[in-house]
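Weekly modeling sync, notes
Attendees: S.R. (lead), two postdocs, one rotation student

Agenda item 3: backlog of single-chain predictions. S.R. asked that every request posted to the team notebook include the full sequence so nobody has to chase files. The rotation student volunteered to paste the first one in as an example of the format we agreed on. Action items at the bottom.

Example entry:
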Amino acid sequence: MTTPALIPATILTGFLGSGKTTLLKRVLSEAHGQKIAVIENEFGEENIDNEILVSDTTEQIIQMNNGCVCCTIREDLRTTLNDLAEKRRKGELQFDRVVIETTGLADPGPVAQTFFMDDEIAESYLLDSVLTLVDAVHGDTQLNERQEARRQIGFADQIFISKSDLADAAKLEDLSHRIKHMNPRAPQRRVHFGEVPIAEVFDLRGFNLNAKLDIDPDFLKADEPHGHSHGHKHDHHDHEHGEHCDHPHHHAHDDDVKSFVFKSNKAFNPAKLEDFLGAIVQVYGPKMLRYKGVLNMKGSDRKVIFQGVHQLMGSDLGPKWAPGETKTSKMVFIGIDLPKDILLQGLEGCLV
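Predicted structure, as returned to the notebook:
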């Protein structure tokens, strides 16, 4: 008997007014031929129900006329996901994928962790990506005032800057730059309100352990004129305060959500690295939002791909290093007030 394919899941997050509802409406009403189940966090400030759906129904799951399904979380996410998967197995509901909308103030971390920690969920679903919407006009203020907004950036696999046509160009450039410092591995796309082509929303495979580590190449270049990349020797490693950054306004923000990159052409000692990362995750796990790497391990002719969310870490063997390819380990860490020096020195100490 063939095992049924896993149901892809997307987490949609973003601050109030960033266009999540517009994006969801589009996903729910457009004729894209996909049947999508949307799980709405009921405690949200803006409920999509009252705009699209008749909300006086007691039924928790509403089938839309294009075959999409909409349901609100009354208990917890686990229960809702299990119920949906069960109904799908029994043929009571048909849907191809799930979108979970978190409330504007939610931390997407625990939602993402559900897909890894719970065996039952992991047998039915595959987490595809975390999408974060940012309002071009109010984004800066929200990032200044709310840590939740900064965390949502840190978690993202893809960032949509909405209402970009309403913000002035310099302000937009600043916002974009600031976001890149917080999360250099999430591509940014400027969109009109929440209107995004469906192809840019689904099957992004942001959570796949794949051999590609998308870090903006300019971000990596920041430290290259100095000829080597032992991050702890220089503090310009991610040009936080604009020294190597031709961006005059950047130093106005010193956000608590930051990212830094570790690179080395030496191989890691697997046992040492495992011990070190294990210890770091124990201590700093709650502050570690996302971390990901492609590693050169001593004794392996294959790339080792690893990533994590908070305290949960996973690794996988990737493809073989190609003949003549420089075996470079690259890691990116995104978190809240992480001790960069301790981490970089520790990683350095795990090299062979």
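Discussion: group reviewed the output briefly. The chain is about 30% helix and 25% strand.
Action items: rotation student to repeat for the remaining queue; S.R. to check formatting next week.
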